[in-house]
């Protein structure tokens, strides 16, 4: 187990010139020993590249990877003692389930009785004990993926276990179960786990620290709560949450805040110039028209999502969404309402970055 | 619309009629001609006698046939034992991508483009003790090499020629099998700390099973029917050292014009090949039975 420090950039092209040539823009970050991390971002944002650089399958074109302060940039996966689980199940067709699970240990010359004990333990954890003697090739896709997960977890002394969207092929009900299992394993074994996903629910429920990435850039690393309450970048606000954060263009002149042609008083000091307001749908309150500090809006749509009501409103050419409790009385479509956009949960962005 | 309520339409028979006619002329009719010959003694175009299974019995007792069959079995076995591992080794050492891969593919495939009789001629010259590169070199090294005089030399030369001619086919098939293995398998093997041999044993070989099965069947059938190259190179000699089944058959049918025995033997020959292919195919299928059951890779 070790602490991983990254200070690098990576490009698949030989002579990168502009930002778009990089799969990973220059970044500097650390993964603490024993933490549960998630790399979250849309497809093609560089999260798998980052994972492969950490595991040693890929050498970064610039910079270094350190394990416990030791330079490991060019070390093989074996030297780094890393385990990795891939998106699609990789199993050894000719082996049984038990032989598959034992394979990483056998290659490292672990004594047979230790292998047997460890394989038994992992199989029990994954509820595969009754299948140990079956041929792995005959199993279903999610069973195969469980074997892949098992091979990732079977070595007790690894520096870290990396997961590359491992639950893609798994049925939804089993997904929950396996995710809980991984979390439990993390608590029991205190391994460093790094989990790549594009599913925010998966990331937020699995990890203590979530790294949000877009276009080869890390835009925020923080707890699930921090990502929700204080998105450091408009992308994070937009990407996290269902639906994502509302954004409203605003302007500060002579210390006064203007939103949609209306002067409002902010609860904090703001620098002059153009900026953006960010409000989570959860914190956007509907008030009667003309209430102090409220923007006039027209209700365009009311949807019953089941656990909440989603109200879509038009405000000065912008669309805002608000979440109401399922038992609230929703406004009628076309009705004029007031929207309270300022409050302690409101975030202010300049050039897409959080400033206050 | 359910599949079970399809209307019955007898006109469909007309659609398969062309295929039926083609197959009849290309396979069934010639085969029946052979069957016809195999049960008759044709003394002259006007005089023929029905002899039943007499030719079959005679052919089965023929010592020359036994020798040819034994020769053939040894040869086909040697071809499989040498060409399959060599082809795999060749495929493993070929570059995976880029212009080098394309160039290698062309070079490797070159020998497959040469006509059979030309291959025989090339090796006839190549092996000559006076002017042939191989023959003369071996003479210089003090080996009394002569494919026309020494039975073993002749047999080995025919084998070497077949390896040179057909190993590339095995290599190309194995190469195609190797290229279809997803990268994730190699990455997982690196993570699992697998040695090069383990990667070959547990990933590459099982994943190549399908194409290797085709390679074994093709090489077996082809080598079992080998004719042109040894005919050009050695003419079956010295003695009967390189007389394989098809050459024995030709000697009977064309050389001695024994149509009855030749026809009887053709049928036996055909059944032997069919039987071997059936056994080989089923054996290799059985080997990979469990892999078939798992749907997703």
Short structural summary:
The complex is a heterodimer of chains A (356) and B (297). Chain A has helices at residues 47-55, 77-80, 97-107, 112-125, 141-153, 172-189, 200-206, 224-229, 234-239; strands at residues 4-10, 24-31, 36-40, 62-67, 70-71, 82-85, 160-164, 193-197, 209-214, 217-222, 246-253, 256-259, 262-264, 273-279, 285-287, 294-304, 309-315, 318-324, 336-340, 347-350, 353-354.
Notable characteristics:
heterodimer; A: Rossmann fold; OB fold (Dihydrolipoamide Acetyltransferase, E2P); six-stranded mixed β-sheet; six-stranded antiparallel β-sheet; 9 helices; B: mainly alpha; 2 domains; two-stranded antiparallel ribbon; 14 helices; 2% strand
Task: Give your account of this protein's structure.
The complex is a heterodimer of chains A (about 350) and B (about 300). Chain A has about 350 residues and is an alpha+beta fold. Chain A folds into two domains: about 5-235, P-loop containing nucleotide triphosphate hydrolases (Rossmann fold); about 240-355, OB fold (Dihydrolipoamide Acetyltransferase, E2P). In chain A, about 25% of the residues lie in helices and about 30% in strands. Chain A is built from nine helices and 21 strands. Chain A has helices at about 45-55, 75-80, 95-105, 110-125, 140-155, 170-190, 200-205, 225-230, 235-240; strands at about 5-10, 25-30, 35-40, 60-65, 70, 80-85, 160-165, 195, 210-215, 215-220, 245-255, 255-260, 260-265, 275-280, 285, 295-305, 310-315, 320-325, 335-340, 345-350, 355. In chain A, the strands form four sheets. Chain A has a six-stranded mixed sheet, sandwiched between helices. A six-stranded antiparallel sheet of chain A has the order 13-12-11-14-20-21. A five-stranded antiparallel sheet of chain A has the order 15-19-16-17-18, with no helix packed on it. In chain A, α6 links the parallel β7 and β8 (about 195). With about 300 residues, chain B is mainly α. Chain B folds into two domains: about 15-50, no CATH class; about 65-290, MetI-like fold (Orthogonal Bundle). Chain B is about 70% helix and about 0% strand. Chain B is built from 14 helices and two strands. Chain B has helices at about 10-40, 55-60, 65-95, 100-110, 115-125, 135-140, 150-180, 185-190, 195-205, 210-225, 230-235, 245-255, 260-285, 290-295, and strands at about 40, 50. Chain B has a two-stranded antiparallel ribbon. Mean pLDDT of chain B is about 85; it is low at about 290-295. Chains A and B meet through β6, α3 and α5 of A and α8, α9 and α14 of B.
């Amino acid at each position: 187990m070790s602490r991983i420090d990254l200070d690098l950039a990576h490009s698949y092209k030989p002579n990168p010139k502009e930002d778009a040539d990089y799969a990973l823009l220059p970044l500097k970050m650390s993964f603490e020993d024993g933490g549960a991390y998630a790399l979250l971002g849309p497809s093609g944002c560089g999260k798998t590249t980052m994972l492969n650089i950490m595991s040693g399958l890929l050498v970064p074109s610039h910079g270094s990877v350190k394990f416990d302060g030791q330079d490991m940039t060019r070390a093989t996966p074996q030297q780094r003692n890393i385990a990795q689980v891939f998106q699609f199940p990789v199993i050894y067709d000719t082996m049984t389930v038990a032989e598959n699970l034992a394979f990483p240990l056998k290659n490292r010359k672990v004594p047979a009785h230790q292998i047997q004990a460890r394989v038994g333990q992992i199989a029990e954890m994954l509820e595969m004990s009754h299948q140990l003697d079956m041929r792995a090739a005959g199993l279903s896709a999610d069973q195969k993926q469980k074997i892949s997960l098992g091979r990732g977890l079977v070595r007790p002394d690894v520096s870290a276990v990396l997961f590359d969207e491992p639950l893609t092929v798994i049925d939804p009900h089993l997904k929950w179960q396996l995710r809980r299992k991984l979390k439990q394993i993390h608590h029991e074994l205190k391994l460093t786990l790094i989990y790549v996903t594009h599913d925010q629910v998966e990331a937020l429920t699995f990890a203590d620290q979530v790294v949000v990435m877009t276009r080869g850039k890390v835009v925020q690393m923080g707890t699930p709560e921090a990502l929700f309450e204080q998105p450091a970048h408009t992308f994070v606000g937009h990407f996290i949450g269902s639906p994502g954060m509302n954004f409203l263009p605003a302007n500060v002149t002579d210390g006064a805040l203007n939103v949609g042609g209306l002067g409002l008083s902010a609860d904090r000091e703001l620098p002059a110039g153009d900026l953006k307001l960010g409000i989570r749908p959860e914190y956007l309150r509907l008030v009667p028209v003309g209430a102090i500090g409220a923007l006039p809006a027209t209700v365009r749509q009311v949807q019953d999502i089941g656990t909440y009501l989603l109200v879509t409103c038009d405000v000065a050419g912008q669309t805002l969404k608000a979440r109401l409790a399922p038992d609230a009385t929703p406004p009628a479509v076309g009705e004029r309402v007031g929207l309270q956009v300022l409050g302690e949960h409101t975030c202010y962005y300049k050039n897409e970055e959080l400033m206050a | 619309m359910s599949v079970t309520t399809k209307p019955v339409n007898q006109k469909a028979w007309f659609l398969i009629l062309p295929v039926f006619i083609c197959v009849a002329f290309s396979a069934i009719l010639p085969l029946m001609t052979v069957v016809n010959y195999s049960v008759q003694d044709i003394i002259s175009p006007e005089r023929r006698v029905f002899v039943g299974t007499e030719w079959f019995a005679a052919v089965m007792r023929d010592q020359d046939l036994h020798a040819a069959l034994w020769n053939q079995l040894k040869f086909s076995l040697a071809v499989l034992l040498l060409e399959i591992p060599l082809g795999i080794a060749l495929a493993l050492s070929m570059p995976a991508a880029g212009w080098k891969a394309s160039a290698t593919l062309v070079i490797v495939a070159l020998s497959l483009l040469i006509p059979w009789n030309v291959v025989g001629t090339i090796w006839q010259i190549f092996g000559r003790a006076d002017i042939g590169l191989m023959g003369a070199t071996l003479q210089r090294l003090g080996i009394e090499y002569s494919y026309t005089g020494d039975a073993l030399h002749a047999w080995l030369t025919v084998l070497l020629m077949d390896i040179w001619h057909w190993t590339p086919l095995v290599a190309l098939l194995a190469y195609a099998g190797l290229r279809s293995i997803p990268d994730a398998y190699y990455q997982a093997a690196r993570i699992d700390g697998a040695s090069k041999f383990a990667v070959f044993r547990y990933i590459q070989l099982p994943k190549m099973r399908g194409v290797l099965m085709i390679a074994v069947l093709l090489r077996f059938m082809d080598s079992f029917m080998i004719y042109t190259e040894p005919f050009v190179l050695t003419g079956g000699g010295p003695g009967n050292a390189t007389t394989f089944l098809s050459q024995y058959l030709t000697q009977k049918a064309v050389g001695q014009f024994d149509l009855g025995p030749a026809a009887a033997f053709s049928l036996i020959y055909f059944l032997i090949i069919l039987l071997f292919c059936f056994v080989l195919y089923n054996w290799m299928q059985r080997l990979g039975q469990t892999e078939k059951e798992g749907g997703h890779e």
